[in-house]
């Protein structure tokens, strides 16, 4: 083997270039970022053959002074920062002075630029990092950068690239990331001469999302905003029923810079809990404002990913933001989309209408005469029902007066309704059942409210009740630590034990006292006193895992309460007496958040009277009854 030698600088540059420009998409990203840094409001991107043959980017930014063109392609030459101090407060995308040097060392590069105010433009051509031409040129608007034959100097890298198609996909994604980071930027993208998108300047993120994915998609997003310490998270997440099979609509920015945030997708996924199925990928467009001193920007040479110095804080912030948006305290409206409604209609064959008791084509709008809108007897009866219910009369009246149904040509089985005692104050409550009619399919309780009816999942509803009860108990007792009669040995290896011990302070706050007997030999000496005997090991292992993963204490207790709640709750197919059902409904009505179980599944579906009337084409009827009973 030959002796140790210093590498020639050309080779050094090429090796470094490989880190900055991995593939055509990274070239596109670096160049558009430069345009934005130069104050451009309009950028046009054109690529050929997956960007491997040609990438041309033109902007209307401030341009590069003629004399500085050679410097722009030199390594570590930048106009953006001057000192280490600046590095701590970076506002521009670029700061390393690496990108153009890297790109030029592995391609054929041409820059045409006119500095704002100058009456002549400049041209610079470089091949494989060596400047071949630098001259005055006709003035242009802003800067145009043309990169050709990417990686021609490094054939190995070129071979490593994927198909044109996958390079195109990567470029597309990179441009979208920038488009969402800078909604006000007018961005055009042409691929092999064909227009792919032309995004006009948008006012804000939601309108940019609507431009890209359509207004329906954008309308279903939930706005989030949450702050903790110096972190501010804002943006949009998919609603409780939106997810994708691929993580293709996940976009993050930090201080408006498109970067990935380590662990963020994982935290968001966790916040959705059971709302989306295993393998489902949530949708999010999030920006994190954070003092750059709390960021480790340089973790990745292409500035693709940042890491927060305090990840536990980030975790708490995301959970809080997402859960506040996902679990507002209202029962789910059952019918949302318009198309959904329409698909429920059964259209009768022409001519068969007259034979249906519900769709006679007479002048009363197709309804049996006894249901005539505004018929005083009906209105009075409705009012009387309500009166009775308010007084808690028991048993409650039938769902519909049988004689009326019979005279309308309908046969009914007599069904009993059971009253539900309303909670003390019904003001501001979103779930106020008045009576119920038992359980269907061994699972769903059917109940009626003032102007709506509900389907309640008996298991998740009971879980919510037990969860809030358990949580109140925990809060009230402000637990004490108790010394365990028999210390409990925990099973961790030396590495894990070390990690856990570094979190000892937090664990102590949570009521756990650990002791290390030898390397990797941890025992639990003291535990919170609310634990029931036999539970310590399960809970402590759970708590340790969650707390050392950065979870906050309150949440760990919530999880504990949820675990307990699930075990203590009635299950599907458990047969419940009407009194128990009434009790469940009343207590659910008193819950702080009645609409979800602690794992995030719905507890209540609500059908409003207006929705039903609409479905049965009774809109006018419903309105008049309401009006006459007021
Ligand atoms: N489109 C542009 N318009 C105006 N000036 C530009 C443009 N592109 C590059 N420049 C100038 O060239 C310099 C070098 O660009 P380059 O991308 O290599 O480095 P940088 O942006 O400073 O840092 P980084 O390597 O982190 O991107 C920039 O600092 C800027 O002054
Ligand atoms: Mg740059």
TrEMBL record:
<dbReference type="GO" id="GO:0032300">
    <property type="term" value="C:mismatch repair complex"/>
</dbReference>
<dbReference type="InterPro" id="IPR038973">
    <property type="entry name" value="MutL/Mlh/Pms-like"/>
</dbReference>
<comment type="similarity">
    <text>Belongs to the DNA mismatch repair MutL/HexB family.</text>
</comment>
<feature type="domain" description="DNA mismatch repair protein S5">
    <location>
        <begin position="209"/>
        <end position="327"/>
    </location>
</feature>
<comment type="function">
    <text>This protein is involved in the repair of mismatches in DNA. It is required for dam-dependent methyl-directed DNA mismatch repair. May act as a 'molecular matchmaker', a protein that promotes the formation of a stable complex between two or more DNA-binding proteins in an ATP-dependent manner without itself being part of a final effector complex.</text>
</comment>
<dbReference type="InterPro" id="IPR014762">
    <property type="entry name" value="DNA_mismatch_repair_CS"/>
</dbReference>
<dbReference type="InterPro" id="IPR036890">
    <property type="entry name" value="HATPase_C_sf"/>
</dbReference>
<dbReference type="InterPro" id="IPR002099">
    <property type="entry name" value="MutL/Mlh/PMS"/>
</dbReference>
<dbReference type="InterPro" id="IPR014790">
    <property type="entry name" value="MutL_C"/>
</dbReference>
<dbReference type="GO" id="GO:0016887">
    <property type="term" value="F:ATP hydrolysis activity"/>
</dbReference>
<dbReference type="GO" id="GO:0005524">
    <property type="term" value="F:ATP binding"/>
</dbReference>
<keyword id="KW-0234">DNA repair</keyword>
<feature type="compositionally biased region" description="Basic and acidic residues">
    <location>
        <begin position="338"/>
        <end position="347"/>
    </location>
</feature>
<dbReference type="Pfam" id="PF08676">
    <property type="entry name" value="MutL_C"/>
</dbReference>
<feature type="region of interest" description="Disordered">
    <location>
        <begin position="338"/>
        <end position="383"/>
    </location>
</feature>
<dbReference type="InterPro" id="IPR013507">
    <property type="entry name" value="DNA_mismatch_S5_2-like"/>
</dbReference>
<dbReference type="InterPro" id="IPR014721">
    <property type="entry name" value="Ribsml_uS5_D2-typ_fold_subgr"/>
</dbReference>
<dbReference type="Pfam" id="PF01119">
    <property type="entry name" value="DNA_mis_repair"/>
</dbReference>
<dbReference type="Pfam" id="PF13589">
    <property type="entry name" value="HATPase_c_3"/>
</dbReference>
<feature type="compositionally biased region" description="Polar residues">
    <location>
        <begin position="350"/>
        <end position="380"/>
    </location>
</feature>
<feature type="domain" description="MutL C-terminal dimerisation">
    <location>
        <begin position="436"/>
        <end position="576"/>
    </location>
</feature>
<dbReference type="InterPro" id="IPR020667">
    <property type="entry name" value="DNA_mismatch_repair_MutL"/>
</dbReference>
<dbReference type="GO" id="GO:0006298">
    <property type="term" value="P:mismatch repair"/>
</dbReference>
<dbReference type="GO" id="GO:0140664">
    <property type="term" value="F:ATP-dependent DNA damage sensor activity"/>
</dbReference>
<dbReference type="InterPro" id="IPR042121">
    <property type="entry name" value="MutL_C_regsub"/>
</dbReference>
<dbReference type="InterPro" id="IPR042120">
    <property type="entry name" value="MutL_C_dimsub"/>
</dbReference>
<dbReference type="GO" id="GO:0030983">
    <property type="term" value="F:mismatched DNA binding"/>
</dbReference>
<keyword id="KW-0227">DNA damage</keyword>
<protein>
    <recommendedName>
        <fullName>DNA mismatch repair protein MutL</fullName>
    </recommendedName>
</protein>
<dbReference type="InterPro" id="IPR020568">
    <property type="entry name" value="Ribosomal_Su5_D2-typ_SF"/>
</dbReference>
<dbReference type="InterPro" id="IPR037198">
    <property type="entry name" value="MutL_C_sf"/>
</dbReference>
